[in-house]
């Protein structure tokens, strides 16, 4: 890869939507990319649509934990390596699948995930801020919203 010139033309994106990503494994992968000559990498997380092909509702806690794991990877990586995070919101697994987790039911998850990424973590204060922004008196993180 180093000799091909590809690292000067592209920036790799590391995708993982799970709530318990291998932080150490991702840090090692970033180091491998750097040794090949890639100066920047992107992360790809999800705020919806990555937990099951027939999932109707969005479990905010799963996606929040995904963001928090990526923040750990970022904090353990060289300061100048992260170019950005693509916060994805999948609506179908392939073109032949039914739609899942439509955007309206996932807006609370999007708000929580954006605030966690913006603030470098999640706290009761951030939860209260999201509740106020969305006009929701009781944001449920670890159960499905009603």
From TrEMBL:
GO molecular function: hexosaminidase activity
Domain of life of the native organism: Eukaryota
Gene3D superfamilies named in the record: Glycosidases (3.20.20.80)
Name of the protein: HEXDC Hexosaminidase
SUPFAM superfamilies (UniProt xref): (Trans)glycosidases
Coiled-coil residue windows: none
Species assigned in the record: Prunella himalayana
